[in-house]
Amino acid sequence: MKNLILSGSSIVNTLKKELMTYGFNGFCYHLPLENNYISDVDLPKLKDFRPELIKREKFVVASDKRAINVREYYFRLFADKMDSGLAKKKKLGPNLWDGPNLATSSGVQLQRFLHLNDVHTVINWLVPLHCPWSGMFTLFTSENKDDILNTANDNHDAIDALLCLYAGHFTSKFIVELNPIANHGLLSKKSLKILAFISQGDSIETISENENLSIRGVCYHVDRIKNILKCSNRSQMVYKATKLGLIR
């Protein structure tokens, strides 16, 4: 992850404080690949989840730098090894991560790192959104599994309502950065840039001149986007791209 939406804003800090009342000491928020395959988008990589795609993720909303460090360390150790909890499709609500496999050296290494960062249990909390995607909070805590699960179950509705509220805000504000297609590099930067120009009403000829591309090259990107989004014309393409958060 190269570009990170970090803590510092009042709304992120407010959520962090509210989650602390339930025993959580940090969080990351993103739109997960494993739960976000959309049938009317012709992008096989969204369906056939591959762990190396995780390493391409550029943006997350995070409570603090420690949460980012834990997330990056986990992916560095497990993204190529397909941890069983990584690609497993999550249900709405809390999903307990089983933890590292202590039969492996990388598992022991990860557990040591987690404990040094005051993380003993991780819960992935999936929430619905008012858009085609679903959102997920990765919640960190220093409490043991039994205690935090009891807290999560006893306060399920309150925590879920809280996370749904903030997920809606984060997704609305950062949808262009967080949507899985752009965030994991499933469309090239050039294609996304041309899509933005098209949405502004620029002609193929204008885009060709401004981007120093041949008209044929611009048309290639436009046709590819239309095929991926299953659209027959540019108006449909812009509409669906806006709905998916590829453009505002």
UniProtKB/TrEMBL annotation:
Residues 184-241 form the HTH luxR-type domain. It comes from the Bacteria. GO terms for molecular function: DNA binding. InterPro entries: Sig_transdc_resp-reg_C-effctor, Tscrpt_reg_LuxR_C, WH-like_DNA-bd_sf. It holds the Pfam family GerE. GO terms for biological process: regulation of DNA-templated transcription. SUPFAM superfamilies: C-terminal effector domain of the bipartite response regulators (SSF46894). This is HTH luxR-type domain-containing protein. It comes from Shewanella canadensis.
